[in-house]
Amino acid sequence: MGIGKMKKHREMLKRSVLRRHLPETHRFTHARALRMLRTYSTIFIKPNHGSGGSGIIRVKKVRKGYEVRYGLKRTHVGSASLYKAIQSYLRPSGQYLVQRGLRLAKYKGSIFDARIYMQKPKKKWDISGMAARVAAPHRFVTNYHKGGHGVKLKRVLSRLFTKRKKVKSTLRKIKKISRLMARTINKRHSIRELGVDLGIEKNGRIWIIEANSRPGHKLFTQLPDKTPLRRIMKNKHLIRRRLMN
Question: Whole-model pTM?
Answer without folding.
Answer: 0.92
